[in-house]
Amino acid sequence: MAMRDRTSLTRRCMIGAAALALTVVTGCGSGGGDKGGGGEASPCKPASGKVTLDYWSWVPGMQKAVDLWNQQNPDTQVKLKTTPSGNAGTYQNLSNALKAGKAPDLGQIEYDSLASFRLKEGLRNIAACPGVTGAGSDFVDWTWSQVEFGAAGKDGIWAVPQDTGPMALFYRKDIFDKLGLTAPATWDEYAADARKLKKAGKYITHFSQTDPNWFTGLLWQNKATMFERKGDSWKVTVDRPESRQVADYWQKMIDDKLVATDLQGFSPALYKAWNDGEVATWISAAWGYSTIRDNAKSTAGKWAVAPMPQWHPGEKQAGNWGGSTTAVLAGTKHPAEAAKFALWLNTDPKALEILNREGGLYPAAKAGLDLPALKKPVDFYGKQKIFDVFAQASANVDTNFTWGPTMTDTYRYLSDGTADVIGGKSTLGDVLKQTGSQSVDSLRKQSLDVTR
Length: 452
Fold this sequence. Notes:
15 strands; alpha+beta
């Protein structure tokens, strides 16, 4: 991630088995104020009277957490607007609202998109708000490093961490058992299982054109970092051998019609396919457990979770998909109250329990990693302790992965290119090449130095 002065800071924070580890490359802006630049934050004083805050989020069950806050804080009420997931519409709507001066006080923004919103001067620097600066120790180290820029946050704190997204394989154990299959340990086994499932009239999974973050998680597992920082310059590495390996694999799956290409992520059609047993697996993040649970209720007890298939036998690599923050947006008239709510939402034990139970979030707060629900068997998944699998995945995510400074653009290029792949007009290999070139242009439009 980068800002206007093109300086950056690389942070590499290793964390425990129950939390994700990765490298974050961030940029530190210049200039003052509470918007897109660095420097000291503007004063952040509590209001003298009653306050109402608007908050946009796509987390299932978030209203229950908001209701709890509203019960406990009569002078600061939060109004929730449930929105589509980030790339499905929320980010564009937030951008439009910021331009029109009608943005909410708070918004849910994924880690990889924070820099884009800061570049647009869409975030409020909350470092000066009561309780924020000292809150870093409450969160897993790498997540806090993603929301603060500069050493010890000297260039600002721009959001509060919420959750992470270590990936694993959700699969219909009943279908696999009936066909004499076990959870595939390698991608070769996964492809072989796909052929057997096809003969049984089923798809092993869907390949969505609207989830570029998901595809990025697959690249991540193969150590295919998409950007590199060298001195004062960025290098775009979207099209690289490790990425090509992933793209070629999935292109063959598409060409051989082993995956459903007419189903979009988080759609009623996909949920019906899960309920009907037409789609038998989903490679997804920890939060995905509630997506299946809430939208494929007729399949209760039939799913299980296993580690992601590996490129080579014996490896234990995992990718990451998602992970969000609660960001205070530029233009809010009540930054102190907004920051207080963001901290409470992501550290209060009862709030964390609600977000895990209802929304399936894998918490960024250290206290959340001790939630009883993360240590218990899950009825929907055949009483399997599925979060043990995600804890293992968290410890096996490549720590060298680097976010680009304009990831929302890169994701849009990937999504648009994938639509052409589904339409038979292109290949995933071509999409990588095209996305790399487009990403270079995007960086240069932001006056960033780019090397080939």
